[in-house]
Write a structure and sequence with these properties.
alpha/beta; Rossmann fold; Helicase, Ruva Protein, domain 3; Zinc Finger, Delta Prime, domain 3; 5-stranded parallel beta sheet; 3-stranded mixed beta sheet; about 10% strand
């Protein structure tokens, strides 16, 4: 049986022209040899498997060749080339700095530099992984590297340039090797497959190149592994099965189901992935990349950023036309948040499922905002906030429809929405509330008590927390000065407190409910508050209140002024610590004596 040689060694480039993906570096080196501008020291740095040591060997072989071709390539026929090909050259010395990193090793190298080459023009020293040298070894190497003999050339190679001391870097010509592009790797793999008699699908080689992450040596190692697994016929399905890579088809199916709002099928597909041995983190990372590629496909000018085969590019372009840009942004934010929080989650499967539910809910909102007539179907029911917003729009457009009939219709819709949502919650065990990063919060269940609300309840209730005007800092103006009664004023005031102010701001709501607004002789509406804290909080909402009252009462000259009620006129409960203490001291005077005795402060 013949000895097997891995492809990374068997097909290692032996000339500058056969180096893959580093055309700018090989052209520079060839021009330096042609013009006899050869530096005394080179530093080749870059990621693993991109050709640093290979280019160092080709450079060493070429500059010692006695019969260089017109294309600046070694002839492979002279004595120097033959000895190099058989690893017998005495003028080209390779040193592994990982195992020869002491001062003594560098001193031994410096001693060797004193001896001129026996044949050829140069004596070349290739030091691989040079960043592994110790600080003392670097210092011992400085003088020789700066002023070597005319026949000595040093070629240093490293994957971690930042670990080399600046004094070494300043004495070298630096060549930064880049990651090899996927297209270049695929072409090289196709050439190797043809030489080896292997029939390989283009998509299969593309997956291998992606897995290599820019390192050609890694791609060749994976290629050998796949040939050992699948034989002389390399197929896409065999590659993704052996490399434990998620098939693109899963992501396309999930996006289609999300667009159809088919949450049940989305969760089933995710469960199938888990059953095949993939974990949730691997899925969410792959799905994020899929969404990113869909976003890239929306513009023809960014299609070049897709490192995919032509057939996959067409699938991405087709699906990207069905998705909106804002929807993709929202999905990407949800997926990114899920990725960040995945490792700290106690229930990681539920964590990913919640992210998928949020994506489905986000799609519903985007669809309804772009098309108000869109109705939810399938497993997804209308959420309470969506039901409320639909009630608002229906009540505002009621027109000639009578109020009791409109209220009954809204009530019936609300009950059916409640039943559908309860069914979904029972079947899928969805938590009571899911928060959205870019959209409004939705709940997946409705309190049964909501069904018992009176049918005569007003349906024109504005959404909580929204301002009365688009710009609360700017007062709306007008010329109307419609007269209004005290009852009209109190009614509009209470409506603002109950419907417009955010429910979270209970202190402000309580402050504006205790008293009664009074219209003074100069036409200004005045309202008394208990202290400066309440007044500061109320002034922050003053313009918003004025806009609401002007609109409701039809009087655009209306103004509102807040003031603090004098302490002797107050009959409300104590608000500050000092007020609370004074009330307590009135009931028990000994407290005041205690405060004075210990000189206590509030």
């Amino acid at each position: 049986m013949s000895e097997f040689v891995v492809s990374a060694r068997k097909y290692r480039p032996i000339t500058f022209d056969t180096v893959v993906g580093q055309t700018n570096i090989t052209s520079t080196l060839k021009n330096a040899i042609r013009n006899k501008h050869l530096a005394q020291a080179f530093l080749f740095c870059g990621p693993r498997g991109v050709g640093k040591t290979t280019c160092a060997r080709i450079l060493a072989k070429t500059i010692n060749c006695s019969n260089i071709s017109s294309n600046i390539e070694a002839c492979n026929e002279c004595e120097s080339c033959r000895s190099f090909n058989h690893n017998q050259s005495l003028n080209i010395i390779e040193l592994d700095a990982a195992s020869n990193n002491s001062v003594d090793d560098i001193r031994s190298l410096v001693e060797q530099v004193r001896y001129a080459p026996q044949s050829g023009h140069y004596k070349i020293y290739i030091i691989d992984e040079v960043h592994m040298l110790s600080q003392s070894a670097f210092n011992a190497f400085l003088k020789t590297l700066e002023e070597p003999p005319s026949y000595a050339v040093f070629i240093l190679a490293t994957t971690e340039k930042h670990k080399i001391i600046p004094t070494i870097i300043s004495r070298c010509q630096i060549f930064d090797f880049s990651r090899i592009r996927i297209e270049d790797m695929v072409r090289h793999l196709e050439w190797i497959a043809e030489n080896e008699g292997v029939t390989a699908e283009h998509d299969a080689l593309h997956i291998i190149a992606q897995k290599a992450d820019g390192a050609l040596r890694d791609a060749l190692s994976v290629f050998d592994q796949m040939v050992s697994f699948a034989g002389n016929k390399l197929q896409y399905k065999d590659v993704i099965a052996n490399l434990n890579i998620l098939d693109y088809d899963y992501f396309f199916r999930i996006v289609d189901d999300l667009l159809d709002r088919n949450l049940s099928q989305v969760l089933i597909t995710f469960n199938d992935l888990l059953m095949e041995g993939f974990d949730g983190h691997q899925f969410i990372n792959g799905f994020s990349n899929h969404l990113r590629d869909l976003l890239v496909c929306r513009d023809e000018s960014t299609l070049a950023l897709l490192e995919l085969s032509n057939s996959l590019k067409e699938r991405y372009k087709k699906q990207s036309k069905k998705t909106e840009g804002e929807l993709l942004f929202s999905w990407l934010e949800i997926a990114n948040k899920c990725d960040v929080e995945y490792r700290t989650s106690k229930n990681q499967r539920l964590h990913v499922e919640l992210a998928l539910i949020r994506m489905c809910r986000t799609e519903m909102e985007v669809s309804k905002s772009s098309n108000p007539e869109v109705k939810t179907t399938g497993a997804i029911a209308r959420t309470p906030r969506q039901s409320e917003s639909m009630r608002d729009s229906e009540s505002s457009d009621a027109g000639s429809v009578s109020a009791p009939a409109a209220a009954k219709e809204v009530h019936d819709k609300k009950i059916s929405s409640t039943a559908a949502s309860a069914t979904f919650t029972e079947n899928h065990s969805v938590p009571a509330q899911v928060k959205e990063p870019r959209t409004k919060s939705f709940t997946t269940s409705i309190r049964i008590g909501d069904q018992e609300k009176s049918e005569n309840q007003k349906t024109d209730k504005p959404e909580k927390g929204k301002a009365a005007s688009k710009n609360p800092d700017k007062l709306i103006e007008g010329t109307d000065e419609k007269k209004f009664t005290e009852i009209d004023l109190i009614t509009a005031w209470n409506e603002f407190v109950e419907k417009v102010i955010d429910p979270v701001r209970q202190n402000l709501i309580s402050s504006l409910r205790k008293g009664k607004p009074q219209r003074s002789s100069d036409g200004i509406i005045r309202y008394g508050l208990q202290n400066e804290v309440q007044m500061e909080e109320a002034n922050g909402e003053r313009n918003n209140l004025i806009n609401y009252l002007r609109k409701q009462l039809g009087n655009y000259s209306l103004k509102v002024d807040f003031f603090v009620i004098p302490s002797e006129s107050r009959n409300d409960d104590a608000y500050t610590d000092e007020e609370k203490f004074k009330k307590m001291a009135q009931k028990n005077p000994a407290l005041e004596d205690l405060r004075k005795q210990f000189d206590l402060e509030f």
